What we know:
This protein is α/β, with parallel strands linked by helices. The chain has three domains: 8-173, P-loop containing nucleotide triphosphate hydrolases (Rossmann fold, 3-Layer(aba) Sandwich), CATH 3.40.50; 185-275, Rossmann fold, CATH 3.40.50.11420; 291-392, Rossmann fold. Helices cover 35% and strands 18% of the residues. The chain is built from 13 helices and 14 strands. Strand 13 (353-356), helix 12 (364-376) and strand 14 form a beta-alpha-beta unit. Helix 11 packs parallel to helix 13. The model is unreliable at 1-11 and 39-48 (pLDDT under 50).
Amino acid sequence: MSDSINDTPRSGRLHIGIYGRRNAGKSSLINAITGHETAIVSDTAGTTTDPVYKSMEIHGLGPCVLIDTAGFDDIGPMGELRVEKTRLALEKTDIALLVVTGGDLSYEKNWMAAFKERKTPFIVVLNKCDMHSEDALAALVEQVKDELGQKPVCVSAFKGTGVDRLREAMLRKMPADWGKLAITGHLCKEGDLVMLVMPQDIQAPQGRLILPQVQVTRELLDKKCLVVSCTADKIRQTLEALARPPHLIITDSQVFGEVWKLKPAESLLTSFSILMAGYKGDVRTFIEGAEAIDRLGPDSKVLIAEACTHAPLAEDIGRVKIPACLRARYGEELSITMVSGTDFPEDLTQYDLIIHCGACMFNRTYMMSRIRKAKEQGVAICNYGVALAKLTGILDKVEYV
């Protein structure tokens, strides 16, 4: 299985990465945690190649994605590629399990440093504890604690012992804000009338709404808001049919201009993409990054990145509409590069601006890793909704969380 993360349920799940040497028992540990034969287990070193992502519910933790990675001591040209894939998996990891079996711990120290640098919570897991006598195990625990600075959780993935203690340890390591972030934040409360403007264009999946529309609608219903929805061609009729103006209007960013002209003066306005910017990323960084749009010129280079991987469409917002807006302002010479899925350049310094999608298919940790990379390289970054609000001239008038 590849390291694709474009699996809708994964975007809001806790990502738990399992890291360790070849044959440390990472795949066996996943099977012990899940209680299923989720990962392939073999005595042959290097059985796991590309990271394997498995979505499931784990008691006490809720919806999770378990990431089974290749051994970080893999060797040879292919081994180096596998280790690089393992490093990339760290960008998506909310909690890391560092699986050790004792012996030399030099690789493990390096990976602990990487966890700490990224502020990734981690747990040292001493596996294969059933293979040692009580005295030998006690000595091994002390060795790991002394060298890695953390007392390990002892488990036997083969026998399934110690897994409950590991789950408890994972609960204690869950990010403090996990499950507390709200997409609409303070913008609305119980009883508020919220209007959703949702064009069902060529990009919308047949018979379904796109993920941000679904997530926002569910949250509004949970908040006990009054929700009304319409397409872009029915904005005026919908407003006329309402007994009072909406407290908040949430629109598809592509029709920002139309909605702004028609909305009642007392109604707040934002977009699905701007809400996702705060939910999955750092909206204030995006708003600051949007200022770079004014500094672009015909010789500038822009990188457009989106989480989804799909064939180009005639009305595509990232591949068609945003480039058209930028080139209308700065000329056809403006260089625009498009990447999708997990493709994202290591060297961003050649670009004057990055415009990212709402990242509804990524988890927050992965999106924040991209934002951090852009900041470290001094490159401005914003997202689709923020960019379109800027290009429409209403960025200072829209709401964000």
